[in-house]
Amino acid sequence: EAQKETRGFQTEAKQLLHLMIHSLYSNREIFLRELVSNASDAADKLRFAAVKDDSLYEGDSELKVRVEVDKDANTITISDNGIGMTRDEVIENLGTIAKSGTAAFVQSLTGDEKKDAQLIGQFGVGFYSSFIVADKVVVRTRKAGVPADQGVRWECDGEAEFVIENIEKPARGTSIELHLKSSASEFADDWRLRSIIKKYSDHIAIPVVMQMPQAVGEDEAAQEPQEEVVNTATAMWTRSRSDVSDEEYKEFYKHVSHDFADPLTWSHNRVEGNLDYTSLLYIPAKAPFDLYNRDGARGLKLYVQRTFIMDDAEQFLPLYLRFVKGVVDSNDLSLNVSREILQKDPNIDSMRSALTKRVLDMISKLAKNEPERYAEFWKEFGQVIKEGPAEDFANREKIAKLLRFATTHTNTAAQDQSLDDYLSRMKEGQEKIYYIAAENHNTAKNSPHLEVFRKKGIEVLLLSDRVDEWLMSHLMDYDGKALQDIGKGELDLGEMDSEEDKQAQEKVAESLKPLIERVQKVLGEKVAEVRITHRLTESPACVVVPEHEMGAQMRRLLESAGQ
Ligand code: ADP
Ligand code: MG
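Above: inputs. Below: predicted complex with adenosine-5'-diphosphate.
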């Protein structure tokens, strides 16, 4: 049954499509990159499925992408012999514009077209970028291993609806036919398409082929049309670093991450020896919408001897590095490896610590050599890095070096001071690193606890992120100096008080004894203890949390988590 039906997109779809077309208008040629990227993913998926069942190749295991152009009809067709899609998969994958995080995305739209355009560039639109250049798109596809009469045809004009029906499709895989807008007919040009493929899709591991241009003056009918490969067609991470240009690294990032923006930095390494593997790891420029969803998809693309195995292999990096994208290609794992096996394999643990170290080194290098770009990194991912010391005790010192704080030294909310900066400014005789944690920067900055520190010129870290107390409780010390919450316990500035100060303090204490006793009586059970403090210079009194109790911020954090 051909079952022709018309379906609508979700309500946001039209708005989203319109925005996307608008925002990507100056960079229209990327539609081809997205479609070739999808074809390559489809080839990867077929190769993986064929490891268990090679009948899926149906006698044709030379996977490739073909790009054809018809100038007269003003169409471009991109076809592959990859995994293909069933009818349900077409509806699922192409009938839902911008799947993961759509809700978050739509919520973050401001209505200001300019701002929204930047957002959408970050979000990635994949297949739908076809509509930047086309006013009608026809997809024909047939899943590997199913009969030829179970092909599917999907058609959409980029408005609110699409039409889907079953067709006969002998050739496995997917073809995407773009009917170009008259304003985009410049793309119906063989040489233009070749140069776009070279520019954006050179790194694609399977051949991208086009028909060879016909020699001028020869009898066209006499010639068999011949194909030629337009791209380099080797898995990019297998090439040596010196052979790969920055542009190629950037384009490859967009392919693996499905991101539209350039990455912040990357690290490409081959490890030989006990375990043999290649890794290509990227730090994105922008945090994804679901960064704080600890259950969200994360991880690397796993290959075994250049065969794609799985997306989102999360076993290779700790949770606090969940923003890292990239590829790991192992020569030792079995092609039959599964998530369950990955969880148990002790070799994975050693790969994980090596890859973690790689990422931390890459970030440290950025911090050292490019402080301005590091500041951008910190703005996007600093909060997640702060989860590090709790999760990864072994790398505590390394992570601590990456931390950036607001402090009383700069007295602004910007988190731009390192612990090393702090150490370099410590007072003679100062033994601890002092901090105060509050629910926001202003409260921290104006805390009465700071009075004596300001007076003595001792720097205090001003913490106001939700994770900060959690961070401090796991960090505990840095470079042999304890981290001390100045809102907690007895304050002993030790060597920093002069002999006269100490004598004066004792005298005051003696004379105030009756007052203290009275206050204690009045407050009764409401407090644990009333004592004289020398930490205030302006305010008359303040509340202090005992040394080993939870800080106010931590208490709020746990309360909000329902504990
Ligand atoms: P993404 O590639 O980020 O998943 P896209 O919008 O580019 O998003 O594609 C959406 C989905 O449609 C893909 O995840 C894939 O499941 C399916 N798809 C797209 N193109 C093809 C293709 N050529 N062959 C098989 N499936 C495809
Ligand atoms: Mg895609």
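The first strand starts at residue 5 and ends at 8.
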